[in-house]
């Protein structure tokens, strides 16, 4: 009985509405190249969660990410079939993606990922893809899987261990109609392709024992990498050593009459006589510290994938001249936090800490800045040795001055993108944490969030000390405030915000939410768990955000609470928060009950965007009673449901969502309201045939009245704006699509003192 592979070929077009794709944009890192593949004229580079390619004729570099249809899962390998003009992308979870390069159609092939039979999810990684006679042989962590290129369906699964059990297959090749597979623990296994019963493990024999890591066919013989870091060729069944570089090989390629062997610091190109014709050392590439991951050749060009800087290109004839192939993007995909300035500049940080606020191991990932569609990546070496940078605060009076919080080194000041000062225990009021019984520990200065008040003072959250609230005053003086009276002990700090009354709201790991205002007798109130202690669902508070109506929205690790008004702090001794109760199919439910909330952002219409630790992003109405949208990796270009941070560009309405596997943005409509109507604009205009999106009317004042009529004056739409933008779905009050023609848009402020008229043309 044949051991059939569970065939599941699922064609997924997650974004069927083309207009929806236009609402999304991806901001991915292409630094970390996992694998390379090639055709005669194109190079394909697989990065952590995205791809890029170079057209050698035009030198054009194209990128593919989740906005285009990729999954956001971690990529393990890539293979391009020149005969079928398809690119295949393998993932750690077994997902196989096929890209039709002619049509750009992306197909998700889930047969390996969803394979039954008791295979654990962490044992489905795709390690290598090899093409032979209209088939792909896919090496996975549990078996060798066949994929038929003639009809793009999975074939059989070959369990090739000596007992027929699962075996980790690393790489395959074919020589003289014999297939050879390198396994992790069972040596090199061999079988004749003419055998019609390859699914029977007895059809496979051990070609050579020992421990091997890779194998290719080159110059009509087998060449393999051994775990002893030596490259061998086989004369029959006898291995003959041909190269020993003294370090592990990470990649081996046979490309025409050239053999390419790669280690983490060296690429060696050999001819058919196994003579070394080119050796490229990572140390020979100027101004870069590189770790090689893969290497290949197209014509005279050598391409080297790196872990830090994309792809390095050089040539066989001039291997001392280098070019870096690296699309624009941030330093890393796992962005910990983002900050957007009033002008729209975005800052991204990558330092992080565990759920227990532990920053170790300390990160040295630098900072990234996106301005006018250009990325600037500032490396750790230029940041005065500030480690684990977790957040950026921009000076409200001068965007060229920013403060970066380090969860180990203190507070870093940058001016015009250059680090100028590191504030620590030697030159500021910042303090190192104290470990009882270990007085010599440190310095370890845990600065998380900083925030400016209305007077231009910079408030600093300095964790695990008694005087955890600091202020760096506009006059250059530091001052500390002791908040230990309301604490059970020293606590780790998290985010902080300052409201219109200059009240500081400090989130903590295990002491709830602290509120402090020095202008009211240093009043200090703690809100935590318990009906009489503040009614929070958890004492681990992740974020506290003031909305446009001065309500405080509080996200914890076990749910959501709202303080009806921040003004209550000024005249009440105890503060109690409320849950939001909604009706779900007629039953009263608490909104986001038990959810681990990672961030809350408020848009121009006072809608709430709430990120979670594993459930994606929710957009709620201003009072939380309506779920306006929910985005997950299954129904949107979100690369992950693990949301680290959310920030909104108030001018454009663009919602930036930082996840554990990359950042995307959603071009929302909830912009901040304008002061007048002089900048109102309508887009798209004209609306062309086939367009399925909505018409946006932006630049509005708050509560502006918007009426849309046909050319004869018949009203087809009317709405009062909440923020600076509204959407019209081009229907007559939702009943039917309006006909082709010119439509008038009459806009007036809520007091009718300012008016304007716009036009939009619709072509069906």
Automatic annotation (TrEMBL):
Keywords: Signal. Residues 43-205 form the PorZ N-terminal beta-propeller domain. The keyword Disulfide bond does not apply. InterPro entries: PorZ_N, Reg_prop, Secre_tail, WD40/YVTN_repeat-like_dom_sf. It comes from the Bacteria. Gene3D superfamilies: YVTN repeat-like/Quinoprotein amine dehydrogenase. The keyword tRNA processing does not apply. NCBIfam families: Por_Secre_tail. This is T9SS type A sorting domain-containing protein. It comes from Flavobacterium piscinae. The lineage of its organism: Bacteria, Pseudomonadati, Bacteroidota, Flavobacteriia, Flavobacteriales.
């Amino acid at each position: 009985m044949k051991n059939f592979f569970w065939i599941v070929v699922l064609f997924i077009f997650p974004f069927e509405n083309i207009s929806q794709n236009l609402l999304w944009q991806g901001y991915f890192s292409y630094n970390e190249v996992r694998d390379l593949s090639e055709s005669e004229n194109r190079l394909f580079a697989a990065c952590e969660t995205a791809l890029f390619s170079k057209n050698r004729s035009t030198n054009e570099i194209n990128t593919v990410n989740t906005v285009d249809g990729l999954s956001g899962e971690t990529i393990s390998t890539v293979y391009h079939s020149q005969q079928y003009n398809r690119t295949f992308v393998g993932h750690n979870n077994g997902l196989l993606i096929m890209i039709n390069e002619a049509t750009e159609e992306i197909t998700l092939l889930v047969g390996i990922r969803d394979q039954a039979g008791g295979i654990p999810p962490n044992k489905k990684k795709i390690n290598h893809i090899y093409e032979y006679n209209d088939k792909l042989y896919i090496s996975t962590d549990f078996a060798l899987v066949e994929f038929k290129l003639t009809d793009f369906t999975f074939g059989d699964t070959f369990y090739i261990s000596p007992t027929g059990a699962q075996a980790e297959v690393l790489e395959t090749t074919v020589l003289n109609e014999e297939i050879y597979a390198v396994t992790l623990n069972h040596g090199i296994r061999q079988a004749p392709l003419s055998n019609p019963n390859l699914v029977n493990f007895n059809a496979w024999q051990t070609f050579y024992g020992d421990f091997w890591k890779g194998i290719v066919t080159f110059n009509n013989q087998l060449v393999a990498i051994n775990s002893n870091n030596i490259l061998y060729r086989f004369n029959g069944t006898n291995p003959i050593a041909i190269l020993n570089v003294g370090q592990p090989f990470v990649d081996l390629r046979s490309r025409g009459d050239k053999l390419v062997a790669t280690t983490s610091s060296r690429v060696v190109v050999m001819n058919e006589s196994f003579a070394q014709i080119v050796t490229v050392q990572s140390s020979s590439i100027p101004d870069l510290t590189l770790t090689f991951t893969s290497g290949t050749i197209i014509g005279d060009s050598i391409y080297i994938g790196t872990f830090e800087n994309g792809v390095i290109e050089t040539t066989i004839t001039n291997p001392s001249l280098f070019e870096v192939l690296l699309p624009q993007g941030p330093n890393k995909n796992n962005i910990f936090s983002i900050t957007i300035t009033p002008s729209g500049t975005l800052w991204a940080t990558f330092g992080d800490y565990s759920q227990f606020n532990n920053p170790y191991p300390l990160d040295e990932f630098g900072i990234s800045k996106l301005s006018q569609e250009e990325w600037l990546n500032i490396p750790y070496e230029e940041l005065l040795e500030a480690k684990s940078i977790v957040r950026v605060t921009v000076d409200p009076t001068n965007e060229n001055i920013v403060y970066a919080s380090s969860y180990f080194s203190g507070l870093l000041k940058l001016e015009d993108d250059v680090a100028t000062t590191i504030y620590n225990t030697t030159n500021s009021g910042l303090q190192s944490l104290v470990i009882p019984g270990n007085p010599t520990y440190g310095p370890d200065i845990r600065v998380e969030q900083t925030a400016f008040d209305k007077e231009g003072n910079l408030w600093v959250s300095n964790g695990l000390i008694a005087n955890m609230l600091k202020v760096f005053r506009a006059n250059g003086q530091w001052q500390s405030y002791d908040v230990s009276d309301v604490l059970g002990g020293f606590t780790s700090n998290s985010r902080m915000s300052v409201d219109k009354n200059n009240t500081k709201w400090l989130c903590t790991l295990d002491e709830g939410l602290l509120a402090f205002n020095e202008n009211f007798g240093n009043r200090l109130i703690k809100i935590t768990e318990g009906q009489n202690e503040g009614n929070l669902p958890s004492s681990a508070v992740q974020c506290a955000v003031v909305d446009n109506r001065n309500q405080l929205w509080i996200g914890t690790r076990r749910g959501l609470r709202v303080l009806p008004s921040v003004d209550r702090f000024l005249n009440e001794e105890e503060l109690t928060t409320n849950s939001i109760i909604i009706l779900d199919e007629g039953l009263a439910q608490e909104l986001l009950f038990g959810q681990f909330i990672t961030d809350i952002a408020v848009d121009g219409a006072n809608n709430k965007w709430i990120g979670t630790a594993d459930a994606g992003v929710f957009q709620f109405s201003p009072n939380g009673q309506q779920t306006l949208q929910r985005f997950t990796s299954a129904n949107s270009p979100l690369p992950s449901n693990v949301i680290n941070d959310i920030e909104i560009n108030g001018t454009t309405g663009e919602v930036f969502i930082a996840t554990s596997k990359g950042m995307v943005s959603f071009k929302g409509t909830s912009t901040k309201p304008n002061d007048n109507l002089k900048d109102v604009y309508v887009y798209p205009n004209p609306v062309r045939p086939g367009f399925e999106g909505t018409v946006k009317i932006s630049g509005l004042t708050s509560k502006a009245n918007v009426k849309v009529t046909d050319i004869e004056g018949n009203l087809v739409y009317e709405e009062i704006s909440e923020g600076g933008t509204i959407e019209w779905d081009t229907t007559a009050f939702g009943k039917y699509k309006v006909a082709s023609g010119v439509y008038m848009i009459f806009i007036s402020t809520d007091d009718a003192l300012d008016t304007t008229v716009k036009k939009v043309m619709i072509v069906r």
